[in-house]
Amino acid sequence: MRRQEIQLAWLSLLLLMSCFACAHAQGEGSKNQPYVALPPGSMNRGLITIDNRRLRLSDYPDKTIVLNLFASWCGPCVLNLRDLVLVSKTYRVHPIEVIGLVSHKNDPNIAFVRRFLRHQKVKFPVIWDNNDFGESLVKAINGHSVIPQTFVIDKFGRIQKHFEGYSPLNSSQLLREALDQVGQETKATMSR
Question: What contacts 71, CB < 8 A, 6 or more positions away?
């Protein structure tokens, strides 16, 4: 039994390190990434939240949207959600909206997801994705099917930044830098 525990510990460590490496590599690569347009119709696509409210990304005009794909059973996702809760509080007075997205494929028990989000103190809207909305975003940027993933979408419906994975060392900082950069670009566009 002890040998299995050691193997499981090493496997867990390896998985965690690969998530951090992926996040670091994605963070480095996204610094000069040009924007990518959302798939057609994405801003007006009708989505349902975990509490059965209707939501469209276009419901947030003039806001930068931070859309995070996650699963309740994913350790790096949980750490990322904690950062996003802080970001949503910190940037409350800024034109930013944090939105979560959980796929019914990854988390089929919606009641469990609701309890999980209450426990994590998540106050921002969370989409219950049963129509592959998240997958369409990943395909738009030629990304990988990994979680967590975070998309920074400007008010024009463009993916300005994209992050795959999570690293407690730099993910929060990279997201904040991306939000500040998008905010500066939006101000510059509006002043023209």
Answer: 77, 102, 103, 106, 107, 147
